[in-house]
Amino acid sequence: MSYNGIGLSSAKGSSTSGYVQQSLAFTNRKKDPRLTTHDKEQQQQQQQQQIQPAKDESVISHKAKRQIELLVSEYRDKLEDGPDDLSDDTIDSKCEDYRRSILEGNEQSRSQN
Length: 113
Known about the structure:
mainly alpha, 2 domains, 0% strand
């Protein structure tokens, strides 16, 4: 007497006829307009919560400074590992010149935008 595996395998001893009915308490979310509008509102609220605020200008400038220092650090490593035996003072001066050139390049690109 089971219907697709639902219900009793045998009505014997259950005090019922074993007839399987559709559950009227079940509601299909796709067909019920009351539930779909509520679900859409919840999705919109979740999307609004996931939107990230605009970044602060200080954070952006800090990241730019870190990128510049990374380039200068790589340049310093290249000078220190190079075949020329340069003193620390000359390496420092070359790194300062390189840093200035990068900063001037960034300022020129900002002024063009």
